[in-house]
Structures are given as C-alpha cells and as structure tokens.
Write a structure and sequence with these properties.
Length: 197
C-alpha cells in the first residue's frame, strides 16, 4: 500500500506542470482597490461594487520586470487557459497591444476578447500608462483608475456604474530578446476575475 501511494504521489508531481500553482506574486501583485480596501486579484475572483475602482500593480523586481500585458474581456478567452497551455499567437503578442494615451487621462480599461493593453514604466523616458506611480521599499507601484470600460469591438464607452458583466483578466510578463521586439519567453502568467454587485 505504501509503495502504491509513493508511486501515485510522484506520478502526480510529474503530471502537474511546475508553474501550475504559481500566482505570480513573487514578481507582480495586482490589487483591486475600492473604498479604501484592497483585494488581491492574482488567480482570484474579487467582488466589488458597481462603481469606479483602481487597479494597483506592485512590481517587486522593477529593474528586471516593470511592465505587464493585460487582456480584459467579457468572455474567458485567455482566462480559461491552463498553466501548461501555450498562449495563442504568442510571438505576435506585442503587436496585439491596443494603443492608448499615456497617463490614462480617460480613466479607462479596454475590453476585447483577443487584444491586450500594456501597463508598464519606461525609466529613461519617465513614461507610463498608469495614472501615477510610486516607489516604495524597492517596489514600483502603478495605479490605474477605472471609471470607464471601452468596448473596442463596438467602439463605445460604458461607465463602470452601467456595466452588467464580469471582467475576465489575464496577465502575462514576457522577457524580450535583446534588441528585438519579439517575446523570448514567458516569465509568469496569472488571471483574475472581477464581479460586480
């Protein structure tokens, strides 16, 4: 009996991908902040009120990783991927980033089943897609206000108060090949779901 249990244990260890339980918090924590409360979003479902909120990105190794690709959708396109499944069109992911204004003047989050937004900080240009950034205890913290959802396919803006659907979010940090604008490897990925009440 003990021998069977031992083999079953190792079979399960080998079957489960090494990063399957990784929620990414060693590199990046993402929070939903509303009414002064913060809720960790990494591989979790968060339920908040149907009113504006702020996404808080805490980059724990900003010298190495200071940006993240984010897909936000009404349908769980990327959200339903298993940790071991490859990201569709991985090599073209940087080209699938939607353009937007720096410093997020419209306080919006773009919603699309396939395309991404890139939230990052460029130290040389002091450029970012957050509303503001802070540096604390060696971490880079970016704050992204969300008052509106821009539905890309319909070319319309929906105030958060009028939104009737949950948001499925998929986050991935990539390491790029030096000197080239193509992904080299996936560093970490996780997901999160925001429900409204």
């Amino acid at each position: 009996m003990k021998r069977t249990a031992f083999f079953v244990f190792w079979w399960l260890v080998l079957l489960v991908p090494a990063g399957a339980q990784d929620d990414g918090t060693r590199i990046l924590e993402v929070y939903v902040m509303q009414d002064g409360r913060r809720y960790l979003l990494n591989n979790r479902t968060v339920e908040i009120r149907r009113k504006p909120f702020t996404l808080v990105f805490v980059f724990k190794q900003p010298d190495k990783y200071s940006g993240v690709y984010v897909n936000t959708s009404y349908t769980p396109t990327y959200f339903k991927l298993y940790p071991s499944q490859p990201i569709p069109d991985f090599l073209y992911l940087p080209q699938k980033v939607l353009s937007e204004y720096k410093f997020n003047p419209r306080n919006e989050l773009k919603v699309h089943p396939e395309f991404f937004q890139y939230f990052g900080y460029n130290k040389e240009r002091n450029w970012f897609k957050f509303n503001k950034i802070d540096f604390k205890d060696g971490f880079l913290i970016g704050y992204r206000k969300v008052e509106n959802l821009y539905i890309v396919e319909e070319n319309r803006t929906v105030p958060v108060e009028e939104n009737k659907f949950p948001l499925y979010m998929f986050f991935v940090i990539l390491e790029k090949t030096p000197g080239k604008f193509i992904p080299h490897r996936e560093v970490v990925r996780f997901k999160g779901k925001i429900k409204f009440k």
